[in-house]
Amino acid sequence: MKSSLRDLRAKAELSQADLAELLGVSRQTINAIETEKYSPSLELAIRIARYFESNVEEVFHVD
Amino acid sequence: MKSSLRDLRAKAELSQADLAELLGVSRQTINAIETEKYSPSLELAIRIARYFESNVEEVFHVD
DNA sequence: TTCATATGTAAAGCTTGCTTTACATCATCG
DNA sequence: CGATGATGTAAAGCAAGCTTTACATATGAA
Lengths: 63, 63
Known about the structure:
Two copies of one chain form a homodimer. Chain A has 63 residues and is mostly helical. In chain A, 59% of the residues lie in helices and 6% in strands. Chain A is built from five helices and two strands; from the N terminus they run E-H-H-H-H-H-E. The radius of gyration of chain A is 10 Å and the shape is globular. The A-B interface holds A 1, 39-43, 45-46, 49, 55-57, 60, 62 and B 1, 39-43, 45-46, 49, 55-57, 60, 62. Chain A binds a DNA duplex (30 and 30 nucleotides) through residues 15-17, 25-29, 31-32, 34-35, 37-41, 44.
């Protein structure tokens, strides 16, 4: 599962830790998603997309 | 996590077993999502939304 | 150089998503 | 009536998502 999370986060000038706190997850979770260690849960994917005023399919896409 | 999966599936006149096979998951997985036993993975949520020519946020929504 | 910030990664442990197998109920059809 | 299909549910087991703690490395500021 690829995503544009890193780009969106960079544009927003947020660190992984910043975003993690804003979303209520651990920094490692954000890092794992960005480095493609695993996919977020549906709940978290929706929260992420919503935070960046986007939608799930735009932020995340199957390889 | 609520969803309009049951409605969409009914409109398409598919049984849980039919849809499961089309999506490559078990019937119990479809049933569990419809009865809110658990949320689908992000991958599966995207596949479901795509199958019904919709998008994740339209098919699934946080309680 | 020293310190702080940002990122990557690892291990252990808990929870959740999904599987297979199995059984129960209900409706419909012959 | 008996058979079939659709749905609900349960248990056991494996895989994946997420946590906390911890350490390593790089970069930039003082």
